[in-house]
UniProtKB/TrEMBL annotation:
It comes from Ectothiorhodospira mobilis. Belongs to the Glu/Leu/Phe/Val dehydrogenases family. NCBIfam families: PRK09414.1. This is Glutamate dehydrogenase. Residues 210-450 form the Glutamate/phenylalanine/leucine/valine/L-tryptophan dehydrogenase C-terminal domain. Homohexamer. The active site is at K133 (proton donor). One of its GO terms (cellular component) is cytosol. It holds the Pfam family ELFV_dehydrog. Keywords: NAD, Nucleotide-binding, Oxidoreductase. The keyword NAD applies.
Length: 452
């Protein structure tokens, strides 16, 4: 039977309109769903049984959504109240797996977008983990350690009942690092009277954490970038790179890019951009951001040859490779035009959905290699799954061995995305390749398990 692309597009649009109706006001979730739906037409043509079982509709609806208040006391004894969320999106492949984000911007739509993306990302790793996400509109900036501890303990007093190493395994995200994971896990242990180290990932090395976990997302971004370049007869060595952000993902993306011979010349935070044409001094960035918890403007103080652009736009800095590693929708259509005009060859998403749809279209139309977040930044959750393996076997692997496993997984994700795009007649389209590969793995599992 001849395929009918127009009919498939019409079906996808109808499904998208239903998502809008059922989830009003959740713009980030709408964006994530649309980006996936736009690529799935060829799959339904070849696998009509998945359409008949309404697998796409099921994937767009979380299995469970938990919303609750978090009361806590500040250092002045005043009661504060925040809202928290955990969206357990899909468990066809394993326990829900995904981070917790503490940031004032967090609301249900952000958590659902992140959870939806996590389902596909986790499927691409090939590891037995489902997808979920959580967070709170609590802002840890300017809060004391004692305030953060009280908040984490209050949050866990409600959330613990929904977690478990075989049920739902959170990790960190924006605003949630090893300190916060420690407070959360400590409260979980206190309440349950069980040392289930596999119920959280991103833990400290002294209490069940994995070597290379802190570095994993950033390293994975660069491993995937290198695979993309090699697939197109190029390499990272000698390339000029810019990396937005200066948090965990950005720092370790810069570290691995430098190790592979790239020259990183710019990074940023929400206040501005530093440009160092001699190459970013990574140890200086680490000291400012990891030890002093300072702002990136400090990098330029007393350092010659460095420009600090307050409120500046990092995407206007000429480069061969751009790695957006800060937050969602940070790279717009105008930014994409600036990158193209300056000769950028490749953009790989280190953050979750950092490029707007218009930016993605512009980059791809201009022939810029584009790596989507669900494939590019899967290294963090992949290494979290490796941490779960170590916890289950009461083992602890070396840094070198864990990094080698990470490199293998990222190469496999690249191969899977690249090969799937080729197989469905979309050569070089990493967005479609990653979406289709992830959808097929989850969809087949749901059908096989009767989760319909």
């Amino acid at each position: 039977m001849a395929s009918d692309p127009g009919r498939q597009r019409e079906k996808m649009e109808t499904l998208y309109q239903e998502v809008l109706r059922r989830n009003p006001g959740e713009r980030e979730f709408h964006q994530a769903v649309r980006e996936v739906l736009e690529t799935l037409g060829p799959v339904l043509e070849r696998h009509p049984e998945l359409a008949q079982r309404r697998i796409i509709e099921l994937l767009c609806e979380p299995e469970r959504q938990i919303i609750f208040r978090v009361p806590w006391q500040d250092d002045q004894g005043r009661t504060r109240i925040n809202r928290a969320f955990r969206v357990e999106f899909n468990s066809a492949l394993g326990p829900y797996k995904g981070g917790l984000r503490f940031h004032p911007s967090v609301y249900l739509g952000i958590v659902k977008f992140l959870g939806f993306e996590q389902v596909f990302k986790n499927a691409l790793t090939g590891l037995p983990i489902g997808g979920g996400k959580g967070g709170s509109d609590f802002d840890p900036k300017g809060r004391s350690d004692a305030e953060i501890m009280r908040f984490c303990q209050s949050l866990m007093t409600e959330l613990y009942r929904h977690l478990g190493e075989h049920t739902d395994v959170p990790a960190g995200d924006i605003g949630v690092g090893q300190r916060e994971i420690g407070y959360l896990f400590g409260q979980y242990k206190r309440i349950t009277n069980r040392y289930e180290s596999g119920v959280f990932t991103g833990k400290g090395l002294d209490w069940g954490g994995s070597r290379a976990r802190r570095e994993a997302t950033g390293y994975g971004v660069v491993f995937f970038t290198q695979e993309m370049l090699q697939a197109h007869q190029d390499h990272l060595e000698g390339k000029t790179c810019i990396v937005s952000g200066s948090g965990n993902v950005a720092i370790y993306a810069m570290e691995k890019a430098m190790a592979l011979g790239a020259r990183v010349v710019a990074c940023s935070d929400s206040d501005g951009v530093v440009v160092d044409w001699n190459g970013i001094d990574l140890e200086r960035v680490k000291r400012i951001k990891e030890l002093e918890r300072g702002r990136i403007r400090v990098y330029a103080e007393g350092k010659s040859g460095v420009n600090y652009l307050e409120g500046g736009n990092i995407w206007e800095v000429p480069c061969h490779v751009a790695l957006p590693c800060a937050t969602q929708n940070e790279l717009t259509a105008d930014d994409a035009r600036a990158l193209v005009n300056n000769g950028c060859l490749l953009v790989a998403e280190g953050a979750n959905m950092p490029c707007t749809p218009e930016a993605v279209r512009l980059l791809r139309d201009a022939g810029v290699l584009f790596g989507p977040a669900k494939a590019v930044n899967a290294g963090g959750v992949a290494t979290s799954a490796l941490e779960m393996q170590q916890n289950a076997s009461r083992d602890s692997w070396s840094f070198a061995y864990t990094e080698s496993r990470l490199r293998e997984i990222m190469a496999q994700i690249h191969h899977q995305s690249f090969e799937t795009a080729e197989r469905f007649g979309l050569p070089g389209d990493y967005v479609a390749g990653a979406n289709i590969a992830g959808f097929l793995r989850v969809g087949r599992a749901m059908a096989s398990l009767g989760l319909i």
